[in-house]
Amino acid sequence: MARSYCKATGSILSLDSAASPIRFEMNLPASWNQRALQFGGGGTDGSVVTGLGQYSEEPANIATLLARGYVTLGSDSGHDATGKPPFDTSFALNQEELMNFAQYQVKKTVDVAKFLMQKVYGQKPRYTYFAGGSQGGHEAFDAAQRYGGDYDGVIANYPAYNLQNMWQGALAQAKAIYGNASGVASPAWSNPAKVATLVTYVASQCDGLDGVSDGIISNVPACNAKVTMQAVRAALRCPDGTDTGDTCFSDAQLEAVEKIGSPVQFSFAFASGTTTYPKWPILEGATFRSNHLGQSNTADPTKVPFVPGGTAFQYFPGKGDVQGFITQNLSYDPLAFDPSQWVTRLQQVSGWTDAVSTNLSAFTAHGGKLLLTHGTIDDSITPYNTIQYWQKLVAANGQSAVSQFARFYLIPGKGHGEGLFNAKVDMLSALEAWVEQGVAPMNLIASDGNTDAATAATNGRTRPLCEYGSYPKYIGPESATQTQMNDAANFTCTTY
To answer: What does the sequence similarity comment in the record state about its family (predicted)?
Structure first.
């Protein structure tokens, strides 16, 4: 049901006259429920998040927050990316714009929003929430870690929380595919048809390990034990190790697969102290769409500006990091970049951009709650990155203490805002109940948000949302029908 509201747009001016302001939008309903939700951005931001639609991963059939009486707000994080390529980082040449993007814009925007709510309604919100995915998930981590006193609840989906560590990991993947020489065709590159061969092989080995062959690999540890690089080589290596077609992999291509499926080892520590970046789920069901691992079905890789379906995706965040944040030279060749020669700068910038703190005391002191999700086949931000943060959070605080304020759901078949199982969950209702009534999340159900005709048989299927350490195991009738496989009632969360 539509509600009348006041749309307010404005700019938060910068101290540096050469820096862009933070442009924002607020939507203030005539009938206010005394709640506000700040939306996160995506990529490297650069466009105003309106807050008029669904929040990150909200089911499409649920009323928008504005229709529910929420004040909604979002910003461009302090730079304008209009007309610029994806992952443009030219804004980082200005220190204030860099810092606004890194962390400050989250605080500045919510402070202005609360000031305006006080003016319009005569009071500040009773409850303030934040929701975002990817870079918006990074901003959600900023909200909980850096500005915890300002927020009552946070939803962070597949968060890009440790940007420098993550982008250098992305560059390592790009080098695994492309090598270190720009403009030279790489023998390690695999076209989409060849990648599909790998995806099909993994599914054939692992789909049924959760009790049913439903197109989703849910029992990931069992898959890890079965699909090793040794097994992949035995099954998919071209007979003489040279590329002879789309049904097998050359030795160079298999080496790239192994690198992508292994942690990246750095010769130095980032500001957080970490010296690695986790593996991607290339042997666990990730589909690695054509715009992630290759250009087209036939073209050799070239180092060109971004074209959808073109240059391997991970090249671009790596390129942006090298050019805008680290060297601050927009002509620097990212494939020639040696991070060991830029350690001081990498440590400095990672201290600004990476939201890695496990001390959430300012957030939890007033009852703040965190809901965290990541998909098992995310090939943009590996789920192991979020697993790594969760494990550190538990190690620092203890599982019992963490359970008082946080939940982490690892979602089989979910990718980066898409996936074979494009999970949509009403996380905000669960968060409201926990924050406002003290009722912790239980028995949450995810629905498949895919709507394509090609997936018509499974569109809308449901699964229980399982906390990290467990997976949805099929317990329904043997010889399951599609209807039975589509029903969450036939699955139960089971410890690995």
So the answer is: Belongs to the tannase family.
